[in-house]
Write a structure and sequence with these properties.
Elements: H1 16-29, H2 31-42, E1 53-54, E2 62-63, E3 68-69, H3 71-84, E4 88-93, E5 99-103, H4 104-120, E6 128-132, H5 137-149, E7 152-155, H6 162-172, E8 176-180, E9 183-185, E10 188-190, H7 192-200, E11 210-214, E12 228-230, H8 231-235, E13 247-248, E14 254-258, E15 266-270, H9 273-285, E16 294-297, H10 304-316, E17 320-324, H11 335-343, E18 347-350, H12 352-364, E19 380-384, H13 390-400, E20 407-410, E21 444-447, E22 460-464, E23 474-475, H14 479-486, E24 495-503, E25 510-515, E26 519-522, E27 525-528, H15 529-537, E28 543-553, E29 557-566, H16 573-590, E30 599-602, H17 616-623, H18 639-644
Parallel strand pairs: 4-17, 6-7, 6-8, 7-14, 8-11, 11-12, 16-17, 16-18, 18-19, 19-20, 29-30
Antiparallel strand pairs: 1-2, 3-13, 4-5, 9-10, 14-15, 15-23, 21-22, 22-24, 24-25, 26-27, 28-29
The protein binds 5'-O-[(S)-ethoxy(hydroxy)phosphoryl]adenosine (WTA).
């Protein structure tokens, strides 16, 4: 098929392919000095660093280690000191459609008050604080307040269940939790505090002392005296001046739990200096953020995208951004378009899943089509979280971008801290479906299983050859798992991303072909198959055995399909439907609604080899309703395939 190539923007911060190549050459010539130059240019250091990269304990790399800085100082104080205090930092829009503006000076004051409030509770540098909050100015400020006092935050997405929240609090050993009474989404109030109470019920989180509650709706909440306190009471009388805690560049800014190949989510640990550098740098080069822009990243602060492109990157550059509480489909599926027009958004960053669902909505109901809204303020679009299919790319380009806005298809991960492979708006001709070329200084490559480069046009394993400042430092509490997951011995010391990829023969452009491990990407959310299997078998009354696979889905990218063997006879008909529903609800309770299997099929058994290994590749074919063409000579119980091929 002939590929359409779209030209880059006429003007952007990094201008032209030569400028891009010059940056790549600079990094190639002296990797450590290149990053050191940028770290001096983009960040304000209280104690300048003298060392750039320390690789003496590889793969535990250190960057700028003798320098000291503070992330919240870089995101707030320095702009206020430069006379930009009146500039709008955040335009907050509620679920119901009210909006308000918060200036840099106001945000700084709020962050300082919160920081002082946390300090008054004895929370200090190195402590972990879990944040379980709705999208709000207070949520962003809570993260910044932790950064200000050197406490390490760990944000848990508001859609995770009590059980998931409890596991994360305990794994992090958190001393405090910041939450809200309720969260508003799509016109409905969800009881966040209620989930917190359930998570903490029975004293199961021994390290946790304080639960600080932001009053969002004023809805009724349960209250535990001595443990719970209102945020507004904590802020009362708290000074709006708080000297930042200057931390070493390597000091952990945050932990963020994400799914891997095993049952237990891992706490990805990020640094302060290296991480903040990449968040700021990519916001500048990939998004070309200027003072005149209104930037909108639609992610939730519970995901890494919200960390890098809401809480840290845009604020580090002194930009103006939207923080949106609600959902794209409320009051109707034109909400994004209506908000772009209302706030004159210039840069818009969202996920392919959202785009695909809005395409579907617009195609079934013309009233919510973007053409009814004035989107002429837009100049740049972005995509993140999963591969964007060329058809969705084209629709986004034409119908949202009016055929004039470049799309940056940004490939990256929780572990990478910021963009790794992406077009730059003034540089890269775009091919729909391809994330194009590495960010300057990122040594992305495609190799075979022994770490040898493969030629363009041949698929392989995506790696990053050299360390980079924003990379994951370790898995919290499990350095061995960090080494095993990301630096397997056979890969020559390269970082293993966990994705397959291929470079085009003509341009050397990267296309991500999907995960090569047991991680699924459902609506841009990362889910481990083992995690869902563990949740299913935790229903000990019903479930004997479970295997989970992904299958392609037009809307959500991938969908979760579970094969379950019950402790009772295989159900059919209405009984099967009822049990499937019970198990789906169970998974929602164990992990969160995002982990609910789309389909559950019941069998007397699962396809296994004679040595007892579940043959997942067969299950993948069955889930897709494809005939099994694989070799089944090692399969012990071939008859089971026919049974599992049928939906309930
Ligand atoms: C996938 C989200 C294709 C990929 C920032 C990766 C993508 C995982 C893209 C990380 C993209 C992310 N094109 N695939 N532009 N962006 N992915 O940790 O499989 O939630 O490994 O970070 O999402 O998901 P995570």
């Amino acid at each position: 098929m002939e590929q359409h190539v779209y030209p880059p923007a006429a003007q952007a911060r990094i201008q032209g392919m030569e400028a891009y190549q010059a940056l790549c050459a600079e990094a190639e010539a002296d990797h450590a000095s290149y990053w050191a130059r940028l770290a001096r240019e983009f960040l304000s250091w209280q104690t300048p660093f003298t060392k750039s990269l320390n690789d003496s304990e590889a793969p535990f790399f250190k960057w700028f280690e003798d320098g000291k800085l503070n992330a919240s100082y870089n995101c707030l104080d320095r702009h206020v000191q430069a006379g930009k205090g009146e500039r709008t930092a955040i335009i907050f829009e509620t679920d119901g459609g009210e909006s308000r503006k918060v200036s840099y000076a106001e945000l700084l004051a709020l962050v300082c008050q919160m920081a002082n409030g946390l300090k008054s509770r004895g929370i200090k540098k190195g402590d972990r604080v879990v944040i379980y909050m709705p999208m709000s100015v207070e949520g962003v400020a809570a993260m910044q307040a932790c950064a200000r006092i050197g406490a390490t935050h760990s944000v848990v997405f508001g859609g995770f269940s009590a059980q998931s929240l409890r596991d994360r609090i305990n794994d992090a050993g958190a001393v405090a939790l910041i939450t809200a009474d309720e969260q508003m989404r799509g016109g409905k109030a969800l009881a966040l505090k209620g989930i917190v109470d359930e998570a903490l019920d029975g004293g199961v989180c021994p390290t946790l002392k304080d639960v600080i509650v932001y009053r969002r709706t004023g809805g009724a909440v349960g209250w535990v005296e001595g443990r719970d306190l209102w945020l507004h009471e904590l802020l009362q009388g708290a000074s709006s001046i708080c000297e930042p805690e200057w931390v070493e560049a390597e000091h952990p800014l945050f932990l963020l739990y994400t799914s891997g190949s095993t049952g237990k989510p891992k706490g990805v640990q990020h640094s302060t200096g290296g991480y903040l550098l990449h968040a700021a740098l990519t916001t500048s080069w990939t998004f070309d953020l200027q003072d005149s822009d209104i930037f909108w990243c639609t992610a939730d602060i519970g995901w890494v995208t919200g960390h890098s492109y809401i809480t840290y990157g845009p604020l580090a550059l002194g930009g103006t951004e939207i923080v949106f509480e609600g959902v794209p489909t409320y009051p109707d599926a034109a909400r994004f378009w209506q908000m772009i027009a209302k706030h004159k958004v210039t840069i818009f960053y969202t996920a392919p899943t959202a785009i695909r669902s809005l395409i579907k909505a617009a195609e079934t109901n013309d009233a919510v089509h973007p053409k009814h809204h004035d989107l002429s303020s837009l100049r740049l679009l972005g995509s993140v979280g999963e591969p964007i299919n060329p058809a969705a790319w084209e629709w986004y380009f034409q119908n949202v971008g009016g055929g004039r806005c470049p799309i940056v298809d940004t490939f990256w991960q929780t572990e990478t801290g910021g963009h790794m492979i992406t077009p730059l708006p003034g540089v890269t001709p775009m091919v729909p479906g391809s994330c194009t070329l590495p960010f300057p200084g990122i040594t992305a490559a495609i190799v075979d299983e022994m770490g040898n480069d493969v030629p363009n046009g041949t698929g392989g394993i995506l790696v990053v050859k050299k360390p980079w400042p924003a990379m994951i430092r370790t898995i919290w509490g499990d350095p061995e798992r960090f080494k095993k997951s990301y630096y397997p011995e056979e890969l020559k010391g390269y970082y293993l991303a966990g994705d397959g990829a291929i470079r085009s023969a003509d341009r050397g452009y990267f296309t991500i072909t999907g995960r090569i491990d047991d991680v699924l990407n459902v609506s841009g959310h990362r889910m481990g198959t083992m995690e869902i299997e563990s949740a299913l078998v935790a229903h000990t009354e019903l479930v004997a055995e479970a295997a989970v696979v992904g299958r392609p889905d037009d809307l959500t990218g991938e969908a979760i399909c579970a094969f379950v063997v019950l402790k009772r006879a295989r159900p059919t008909g209405e009984e099967a439907k009822a049990i499937a529903k019970e198990l789906r609800d169970w998974v929602a309770k164990e992990i969160g609604p995002i982990a609910k299997p789309k389909e559950i099929r019941f069998g007397d058994n699962l396809p296994k080899t004679r040595s007892g290994k579940i043959m997942r590749r067969l299950l993948r074919s069955l889930a897709k309703n494809e005939p099994v063409t694989q070799d089944i000579s090692t399969l012990e119980n071939p008859a089971i395939l026919e049974q599992l091929a049928q939906a309930n």
